[in-house]
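FAQ: What does a ligand-bound record look like?

Like this one, built around cobalt (II) ion:
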Amino acid sequence: MIGRLNHVAIAVPDLAEAAATYRDALGAEVTKPQPEPDHGVTVVFINLPNTKIELLEPLGADSPIAKFLEKNPNGGIHHVCYEVDDIIAARDQMKATGARVLGDGEPKMGAHGKPVLFLHPKDFCGTLTELEQA
Ligand code: CO
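The answer part, i.e. the structure of the complex:
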């Protein structure tokens, strides 16, 4: 069922500084910051030949990544995202195997305009895991 690695998301305390690090030190192509109020983050994408890195900065008072940054003040890997062909079929398979789907269990629009779901880190090797319909 699982497909390509769509992205690795890194939460950062300062998006401009993080973007500059990727651009200047690593020579990466970095997109403009994109506010995602529904997800409580501002995102910058780094397009690599085989996948993407998303840099996430908190947006708004109750950003879902605020607690993570309290524990990891320098930033850190926040989640990984795998592509699936059919998000509803994937969700139903997750539930059938006992994995916990976060939120109300209904897919939300992700940063790429495609439906996404998040799976509980305790069920996936301590790593918050996102599924995105390809
Ligand atoms: Co993501």
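Follow-up question: can I read anything off the structure? Yes, for example: The chain has a mean pLDDT of 95.
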